[in-house]
Amino acid sequence: MEAFLLGPSTRFRHPITALPKSPTLRAVYTNPSPSFRVGVRCGLRDGPRKPLWRGRVLSKEAIQAVQALKLAKSSPSASANSRTDGDDKMAEVFRGKIARLLKADLLDVLKELQRQNEWGIALQVFTFIKKEAWYKPDLSLYSDMIMMMGKNKLIENAENLFVEIEKEGVLPDTRAFTEIIGAFLQVGNVDKAMHMYNLMKNSGCNPDKLTFTILVRNLEKAGEEDLAISVRRDCKQYIDSPEKFLQELDKEYPKRRSIKLV
C-alpha cells in the first residue's frame, strides 16, 4: 500500500476517529524496544503501480503541473548557488501552477508523483496540500506517503509521517499501521516492525490479511521463525478462514513451509 482517487464531490475515504486524551500513541511509539537490524529484501507490494490515468484521466492543468515540478527539480544551473536557484524555481511553480489547481487536480498531482516515485516533490506537494483551506486530516493520504517512503527506504520520513498523524488529531487505522510495519521491514528493522504490530493490536486496530502477508513473508525471510509462527497463530483471532488464508499464502510463496495453527 492502493490507488487513492478523489472525485470533486468526494471528501475523505476513511472515517476519522477522535483522538483520546490519554494515553497518547505518540508517547508509546517514541519509546520502542531496541532495534535489531537484519537484511530483509521485501516490498510493501509486488509489481509496478498502475498508472493513475487507468482510473481517472488527469486534467491538462494537472499534467502541466507535474511536468513543471519535475522540470524545476532537474533544471541545470551553472552558478555556484544552483541549489538555491533550483529552490527558487520550485517555489515559483508552487506560487503559480500549483496554487491555481482545483482540489481534485492537486490530489491527482500528488498521486501521479507517487506513481512516478518522485518522493521529494511529493513531500513538498503534500505539505502544500495540508496548508489548503479545504484540507482535513486524511489517513489515506498519510498511508500513501508512508508507503512511498518505505518503498524508498526513507525510514525517518516514514516515522515522521506516522507520528504526524496523531499531531493532526486522529488515530492510525489498519492501513497506516500496516504501511509503517512494512517500512520498518524494508530496512530490516524487525524489532520496530514487531513493536508497531503489538501497538496496533493493543490500540484496538485489527490487523488484516495484508498485514499478516507482509509480516509472515518478511519474518520468514529474516529467519525469525518463532515470530513468524506467533504471527501465523494470530491469524486465527483476526481473520476468517485462517487455515485457508495461510495455505494460499504458502502456495503463492512456496518457499514458506506450512505451520499448523494450534
Automatic annotation (TrEMBL):
Keywords: Repeat. It comes from Dendrobium nobile. GO terms for biological process: chloroplast organization; Group II intron splicing. InterPro entries: PPR_rpt, THA8-like, TPR-like_helical_dom_sf. The keyword Metal-binding does not apply. One of its GO terms (molecular function) is RNA binding. The keyword Mitochondrion does not apply. PANTHER family: PENTACOTRIPEPTIDE-REPEAT REGION OF PRORP DOMAIN-CONTAINING PROTEIN, PPR CONTAINING PLANT-LIKE PROTEIN. This is Pentatricopeptide repeat-containing protein. PROSITE patterns: PPR. Transmembrane segments: none annotated. PPR repeats lie at residues 138-172, 173-207.
